[in-house]
Specification:
This protein is an all-alpha fold. The protein has one domain: 3-Layer(aba) Sandwich (Rossmann fold), CATH 3.40.50.2300. The protein has four helices and no strands. The chain has helices at about 10-20, 25-30, 35-50, 60-65. The chain is globular and about 35 Å long.
């Protein structure tokens, strides 16, 4: 299966939720100057594209795929927000 690449706006929301998992759609919407309904639509798209079930799986997904390291000193891991196109 192939993961479709996230749009730039989806990538920003994905990144924001990975770094701030307790933020609401309203919080994200206010920060990005979007409605909470638009944010919710982007999150649904992200979940579908990454084939994960909830927004709370975004952080584990990012860590597993080398996109994010929760510690300051992670060796060679940088915050690379390109979602890989993978094939299973």
């Amino acid at each position: 299966m192939r993961h479709t690449k996230l749009t730039p706006e989806e990538t920003n929301i994905f990144r924001f939720l990975v770094e701030n998992p307790t933020k609401t759609n309203q919080d994200i919407g206010e920060m990005m100057h979007r409605s909470q309904h638009t944010v919710a639509a982007h999150i649904r798209n992200i979940l579908g594209k990454l084939e994960i079930e909830s927004r709370y799986e975004m952080l584990p997904y990012a860590i597993r795929n080398g996109l994010y390291c929760p510690r300051q000193n992670c060796g060679n891991i940088e915050h690379n927000w390109e979602i890989p196109n993978s094939q299973d």
